[in-house]
Structure formats: structure tokens, C-alpha cells
# Entry
Amino acid sequence: MKEKRVYFRQSVVALAFMLVMLFAFGVTVSAATPTGLRQTSDSETSVKVEFTGVAGARYYGYQLATDPGFTNVLDSGYMSSSWNYAYINNLGTGASYYVRIGWGTDSKNCYANFSEPIEVVTTPAKVTNVKFIGANDNAVALAWDMIPGATQYRAEYNSLSYTSATNSIWVPYDPSGYSIYVRAQRVSATGYVAEGGYAYVSNVSALTSKISKDNFGLRNAWTGLNSFQIAANYYGHGMDVEVYDVKTGKKKFSGTANNTTYGYVEFNKFKKSTMYKYRVRAYIITTDGQKIPGKSWSAYRYLVNPKETKYTQSGKKIKLNWSKLTGVSKIKIQVSTKEKSGYKTVATLKGTKTSYTITKYNKKALKKGKKYYVRIIYQAKSGKKNYDSDIYSQTSEIKVR
# Structure
């Protein structure tokens, strides 16, 4: 028991010494400050801030300055303790300011015990003069006027958003989209975004840089009228078509289609039995009316509209005759026992030939009583390769008697 009393007295003395030292060195506890200061709305000339108050405060006061150190205070005001927000008006458009909140027991002494300051931003002006200026295979390019005070811009396309730090942007193309909306933004250091009104541009399109050979050809062919429609699948506002005489290499005619859904170019000036080659290229039209073509023309496709092929059948032979062809490098004779499939090449002739007699199919002699179908493929040479014409000749059923 005696040792415990000694220990208790020493603790009391130590505690008393600590209290004396604290008061001797003037240690004080800092007053509470408003917390959670944040911007919650904006306009071109105003901002709203909200905060968490302090227990016992009767008034809150705000200060607004042009710098975070508050050396240039532009405005101040107060509100009762029942308000944990402040509207600050008469500000510049698309601008940054700094706000802090203090508190006190009356309206004259509430500019103390300030919160940490935050940057607040006002709404930039509405974007103007949005234009469609270019495209590639997968995206479209837009540009617009610079907006004072904007730190970035947001483009909205089919409910997706894309941002740019400059007054232009490339946006991934969506064939189901139509209009792209652009808004100016000013972003504060806390990440708050003040966004202005929108302007938009419509009728944008990606641009197929080179239409593949598999994506264009004849849409309709009226061989009896010597009339053909050339169409393609591509991105763009239209396509150009050029047609050349294979033998002379001269361009014979050209045309333009300006509708990508039903667009085609129709020609009716082809000469019978003359081989032609044709190519296509997509293009777009910008907002300013500039026509921008794809980077390259397509590869060529080939077309010859031969005169009627005649045949005679006697014994186990089928003799074919056709008119002289121009610009044709090779002629392939194909035979099948089915009308729409199973064709096998039985002969490859020079393009100057005008007749051929079929005696075998599948390396066997033609059979009496059997039905056969004959197809004639016309080819044109380019470099070291021969390419099939989009049109070929085909006979009706031939029965060997």
C-alpha cells in the first residue's frame, strides 16, 4: 500500500508539470472550419457552391478571388447558418475563380476560420460554326471556332462522347448515326465541368480509301439493250466511275453516283463484242462543299457484251460459233450437266478464235441422250494475269442425239 501511494503522487506531479508547460508555451487548439466545399452548378455568369457547416456557427461568409492566395478578392457575402450553399453572380463567361467559406457569430465577423479554397468555373459560350472537314475509312473529322475560356470540347455522337483539347476532333464513324453535337467545356482543378450550349453538323460520312474489287460490279445488266448499271458498297457521299477500252487504253466515258444506298451509274454506250475495263472511287462532300476523293481508285473489273453465240449439234459433237471479239485475250469453254453448277473447263482458246467444237466432258466423250450446258468465259489480260469478264455467254440445254 505504501508503494502505490508514492506512485500516485508522482503521477499527479507529472500531470501538473505538463499542464504548466502547455500554458507557458501558449499552445492553442485551432477553430473548426467548413469542410466539403464543392461546386454544384454553373452558368455563363454565376456559380453555386455547397459545403458542410460548423456546429455553433451563426453566419457563414464567402470570398471570391482571382487567385488561390486571395490577394485579389473580387467579391464577398454572407448567409445565415441555415444555408450551406452560396450563389455567386456577375462573373465572366468561361472563367476561373477561387472561393472559400468562413464562419462567425455575426455577419460582420464571419470572414475567419476559412475552409480550404477551391477553383470554380463558369460556362463557356456556345460553340459556333461546326463543320465536317474530312474522313478516312473508320472516322470523320470535325472543326469549329475556338471558344474563349474553353479548356476542352466534347463531341456527342449516337450517345457516345469524345473530348478534344483543341477546336477539332476525329470521331469513330457510326453508319447508324446522323448528327454530331459539339459543346465547349471548362474544367476546374477539382474536376468539375462547366459545359456550354451545343452546335451540330449532319450528313457526315466515313470515306472508303479504296473500294475492293469484291465490293463493286454490275447491279443490273440488260445485254439486249447494251445497258449496264455499275454500283458499289462503300463509305462516302458518292462514287466516281471510269470506263476504258482495253485494246486502246483510252477512257471512253465516266459518271458519278451520289447516293450510297441506291447509287449507281448507268451506261448504254458499250460496243458489242468489245472488252472494257472499269474502276470506281468513293468521295465525300465537306460542309464547305469540297469534294474529297478516296486515296486510290479500285482495281479494274472487266466487261464485254458479246453478240449471240450459236451452236449446232450433230452426232456426239457440239459446235460453237461467235462473232469476232476485240480486246479479249483468252476464251474459256466450260461444260456441265447442270445449268447452274458443276462447270468444268474443256478448252482455253486465244481471244482471236471464233469457233470451237466440243467432243468431250470430264475427259470422256459426250454421251448420246445426255443433256449438257455450255458456258463461254471471256478474259482480258493485265500485266501477266488474265481476268474474267463480268458477263459471259451461256447456252440453253443441249441434248446430244
